[in-house]
Amino acid sequence: MESESEMVAFPLLLTPIETNYRACTIPYRFPSDNPKKVTPTELQWIDVFLNSIPSFKKRAETDSTVPDAPLRAEKFAQRYGDILEDFKKDPESHGGPPDGVLLCRLRELILRELGFVDIFKKVKDEENAKAISLFKNVVQLNDAIEDEAKRLENLVKGIFAGNIFDLGSAELAEVFSRDGMSFSASCQNLTPRPWVIDDLDTFKVKWNKKTWKKVVIFVDNSGADIILGIFPFARELLRCGAQVVLAANDMPSINDVTYTELIEIIAKLKDENGQLMGVDASNLLVANSGNDLPVIDLSRVSQVLAYLASDADLVILEGMGRGIETNLYAQFKCDSLKIGMVKHPEVAEFLGGRLYDCVFKYNEAE
């Protein structure tokens, strides 16, 4: 993780960091709430993280890079579970009151203290290899759609279908370990439009004008998400003449793709001429966001990302953690898109939608 002195605010944030910006979409508590009493929303989300412990423990137990992995996995489960129970008794314990960022950070800290660096590495590698083998076919199917508006909608649906590969959701982790995931089936089974937030038609109008010269995409998961969802979409942006910056995590967290993994994936997808299926990829850049969580606080990003993003005219936050749970209402100095699938019932309830509903929130710059 980069040192705090190297972290800066994301330069395109319009929401003032000092007064209004907070990386938490769902209000866990209000100023009028008793600071010593856990709120119903805090309790609800503490239970979400409690329910995720078995799947994390299972992954940690099988981490062959860690000596005594089963014993350490048990310690993780006990220690993290105790902290979550402490929050129920006193929300100000452990640096609280709790929100999504703090609950994620404490989980990662405990894992790393016990020697677990990347407990999802094996499944990420497997899913990346599988998705790379499908990339050509997915791109060819997209390219065969002559109508530009329909092609864009198909690319967007691909992002949603890929975003299902999320092992931070207890329900999806269970489904994945039991049945695996099919990208094509996920595309076909998406929640039909209109989605819970659906600004796709407005986005199409702006897309047709081809005015975006530089696009920054905060990417999410490994596997189908990045390779079959984001890359075909980014390739289309490149074909339209835009420069694309993919911002990925500095350190592993759940099955999120990291900066170094992203560089390796791109090397495998490019041909010997540096092209992505016939499209010049010289304008495709990769940035280390400085982040180490499955959510993101835009008041702290790497200086490199801040420099690369400073003149962007479109910012995309992809995935439930970055685009929905922490930054859905964040405002930017340029156009912005928050896109992701709703994979927690608690988020669906807050948005007034359904589980596995889709969020496509597009805002034009003022």
UniProtKB/TrEMBL annotation:
Cofactor(s) the protein requires to work: Mn(2+); Ni(2+)
Keyword annotations: Hydrolase, Manganese, Metal-binding, Nickel
InterPro entries: ARMT-1-like_metal-bd_sf, ARMT1-like_metal-bd, At2g17340, At2g17340_3_helix_bundle, Type_II_PanK
Gene3D superfamilies: AF1104-like, Uncharacterised protein PF01937, DUF89, domain 2, Uncharacterised protein PF01937, DUF89, domain 3
An example Gene Ontology CC term for this record: nucleus
GO BP: coenzyme A biosynthetic process
Protein name per UniProt: Damage-control phosphatase ARMT1-like metal-binding domain-containing protein
The species this protein was found in: Salix dunnii
Organismal lineage: Eukaryota, Viridiplantae, Streptophyta, Embryophyta, Tracheophyta
